[in-house]
Amino acid sequence: MPPDRRGAAYRPGSTGSDRARMWAWALLPIAMAMLGTVGFWAVFGMAVSNGSVNLTREFPYISTCGTYNPQSCIFAQVLNLGSLMVVWIVLIRYQQIKDYGQSSRVNVAGLVLGFGCALGCSFVGNFQQSVLMGAHLFGAFLAFFVGLAYFWVQAYLTYTVAPRHGGRWIGPARVGLCSACTVLIVGMSVLHKQQYRSAAAGCEWAAAMTFFLLFALFAVEFRHVDCHRYHVQKRAVPAGGAKPAEVASQAQAP
Length: 254
Fold this sequence. Notes:
The chain is mainly α. Helix content is 65%, strand content 4%.
């Protein structure tokens, strides 16, 4: 099968093995959402069971649950693996939109914001609040606020990129989840500043679960990806050109 510039899209003539690969990519964002959800609540359960947090005093923040041993090790691993999966998801979504002919600055901005979100997740996991609060808060800012900006960019691209997978419901679903996440993050910030810690923590947990739902929604677009690989390729130098060959990263379908 020759290469296709719109290789991220479904082709009616695809074989059964092609369809299996398409669904395999759809499992990536779902796996990321499941990893985060199960991992966070497992850390919460461990923190409650070993007395690291006391629910009779206040409902804990996610980071409070993950700052003490032994659950801090699981917390770090979940976020490290999750940040790697976020980078992967962001790259695939960027290239998919680019293959649809949307090589816009908005798509590039989404790529940068997505990488910032992944970096923030890694910071939160590796710099616990009891060890280095400044780095931890910086990571939380990247994960929540920059991550939210990334999903608003994706909501915009949902309405501007063609073809739009998922029918009419995918756009409103993404906008609705982004709106809910915005309210939760703003509420978390305001309530924390007013010292309503339990309510702020509740908003944080709800915002994190909403983020995982937003990542899982990429399964709708990713099930139309039948192959995806990056390779380095030299571009031909124009006749008489003095510049050295440039290096480009491309994605092709078989």
